[in-house]
């Protein structure tokens, strides 16, 4: 049976690309399972004598508090930015009012402001002008709260505000395809703008919510700059901050612990994508 050389070449290129992109994951995984990460070539699996899960246990013990803090940070920041972006896009797309083009231009400008440009003013704002750990001090007397939750709240607000522009852009693109006849019919029936959003626009937005939730959750979860500037290392630090010093010492670097910690830290974003993957595909294809 003859084979088309072009098809064979195409599959060969695809297999090579898959191997190229999966090789770092394979090297990281096998490194995390070795008792001595430097004893053999990084891409070779561990020997039966060198196989261990102890590095994973060590990494989890060091990062478990950071994982909880990252969940407390990423979930509300993601939901808040997606919901505010949806509301803003609804007001900029479905409703007609003077000046909405200029307001939308400001939202677009917010997308292109790099993190590094706002680090100093953001740090000064939360530490000097609005120190939540001092303003909300009565709350820290409750059993489940501590002063570092003030910095965590500041970090949530910062990520939510920084994520609203990109969420607004995504939702506005999606809402431009919503049937205007359906919205006009609801208005003729006496529905208010709030009712139209809650009963028509919001149920239709599920696929785009999946897109924004996955995107924003990944951005917030993987952030290190804002976490270091606003909160820094300590009891309330997210997992990315704890990951920076994991396995490091003055005399040695625990590569196996670092790789295990990296996989543990990345696991929640994979879970989110698996949960919302179908809706994500629908939202991207729309």
Keywords:
single chain, 12 helices, 286 residues
Radius of gyration: 24 Å
Q: Given the helix and strand composition, which structural class is it?
A: mainly alpha
SS summary, helix count: 12
Strand content: under 5%
Q: Which spans of ≥5 residues are poorly predicted at pLDDT below 50?
A: none
Order of helical and strand elements: HHHHHHHHHHHH
Summarize the structure.
With 286 residues, the protein is an all-alpha fold.
Walk me through the structure.
The protein has 286 residues and is an all-alpha fold. Helices cover 73% and strands 0% of the residues. The protein contains twelve helices and no strands. It is a multi-pass membrane protein. It holds the Pfam family BPD_transp_1.
List the helices and strands and how they pair.
Layout: H1 5-32, H2 54-93, H3 100-111, H4 115-129, H5 132-135, H6 148-175, H7 180-188, H8 193-204, H9 206-221, H10 225-231, H11 239-244, H12 255-285
Helix pairs in contact: 1-12, 2-6, 2-9, 2-12, 3-6, 4-10, 6-9, 6-10, 9-12
